[in-house]
Write a structure and sequence with these properties.
This protein is α/β, with parallel strands linked by helices. The chain has two helices and three strands, in the order αβαββ. The protein has a three-stranded parallel sheet, with helices on one face.
Length: 79
């Protein structure tokens, strides 16, 4: 028997393929911040595809106001 908790743990299940609206690629922190700003300005559902890597924020938080924004891995590989 598999518990619901283990199914929600990182590394379980199929990679997400959900895409909504305009797609913004981000491979650097600057591009990530620009993508969030562009999605917020558009005000309609959008997707930010983040390239593999480590993104160390230089601000306390990313202010996300875009309704229905999806932020996910560009490759689907969590590692």
């Amino acid at each position: 028997m598999v518990s619901v908790t283990s199914l929600a743990a990182p590394g379980y299940g199929q990679p997400l393929t959900l895409i909504r609206g305009t797609v913004y690629p981000a491979a650097t922190l600057t591009q990530l911040k620009q993508a969030v700003s562009a999605a917020n300005a558009a005000g309609s559902p959008a997707t930010i595809l983040v390239s593999n890597g480590v993104y160390v924020l230089d601000v306390p938080t990313l202010n996300i106001t875009c309704p229905g924004l999806v932020i996910r891995s560009a490759t689907g590989n969590r590692d």
